[in-house]
Structures are given as C-alpha cells and as structure tokens.
Amino acid sequence: MATAEPTLCPLCGKPNQCAAEAERETGAKQPPCWCTRVTFGAALLSSVPEEARGTACVCAGCASKDDTIN
Predict the structure, then answer these.
(1) pLDDT in tens, 14-64
(2) C-alpha distances out from residue 15 to 3, 6, 68, 70, Å
(3) How many CB atoms lie within 10 A of CB 49?
(4) Which of 17, 46, 48, 55 has its CA nearest to residue 34?
(5) What are the distances in angstroms from CA 65 to CA 30, 31, 39, 40, 60?
(6) Would the pTM of this model clear 0.85, i.e. be above it?
(7) Which whole-number Å values give the CA distances from 1 to 4, 27, 45, in the listed order?
C-alpha cells in the first residue's frame, strides 16, 4: 500500500497548505488550520483514498466543491 504525502491534497495532488503539517516540518508555531473550523460531508471524506485518510488534508479548493461543508 502506498503512503500519502501529508503536504499534498489526496484528491487533486496540489499543496494542501496544512498548518499542522507546516508546524511539524518547521517546528514553528502555526495558527489553527482552517479545516479545524469546518465540518466535511461524508461524500467528500469517502472520496479520500484509504491510504491518505488521517494522513493528508484535503485542500481548501477541493473542500469548497463539497456542497455539504459547513
């Protein structure tokens, strides 16, 4: 099984701008990531490949296409 790249969106492959990952990589304190303040729909979450679940964040662009995000 392939492992997901935590800095890339598992849906489109573009940088996901994950604040938590940036903090882990640099050691520099980051503000809370935008994604911690939203709820993602089940359809969007189920479209994330299994190997990326809990490993790589969906980017804001892909999340904005989810009509159930709130």
Answers:
(1) 999 999 889 999 999 999 988 888 888 899 999 999 999 988 999 999 998
(2) 16, 9, 22, 22
(3) 13
(4) 17
(5) 26, 24, 13, 11, 9
(6) no
(7) 10, 29, 19
